[in-house]
Every structure is written in C-alpha cells, then in structure tokens.
Design a protein that fits this description.
Low-confidence stretches: none
Mean pLDDT: 77
Distance between the termini: 48 Å
Shape: elongated
Structural class: mainly alpha
Strand content: under 5%
Number of helices: 2
Number of strands: 0
Largest sheet: none
Radius of gyration: 18 Å
C-alpha cells in the first residue's frame, strides 16, 4: 500500500509488519526500488507546536 497526497498532513503513520526481514529484502528487487516513489514527509512547524508539558515551568 502506498500513501496518496490526499491524506491529511500530520497523520500518524504506523504499519504492523508480518513479513520476515528476509521476505522484505526479497520484495525490494532492483526493479521495484527503481520505480519506488518516496513519500512526501512534512515536519510540523515548530513555531506552531504546543509547548512540551515536561518543559513548562511551574508558576
């Protein structure tokens, strides 16, 4: 499964892997690697991020 650009930004991405490392390596043939398209990963804007509660100083 590959992701499309219509998925919301900031979505949590996870995947449960049931294949062995050997099966995964066998899947990624040189042909598949050549045709693979990297996912556009956008990091959140740190200026808009909420403060980390661990870093908040008590008043």
């Amino acid at each position: 499964m590959h992701r499309t650009s219509d998925e919301p930004d900031g979505a949590d991405v996870s995947h449960n892997v049931s294949e062995t490392p050997e099966e995964i390596l066998a899947y990624w043939t040189p042909e598949r690697m050549a045709e693979a398209v990297p996912r556009d990963i956008r990091l959140p804007d740190r200026r808009k991020a909420s403060p980390n509660p661990k870093e908040t100083k008590p008043s």
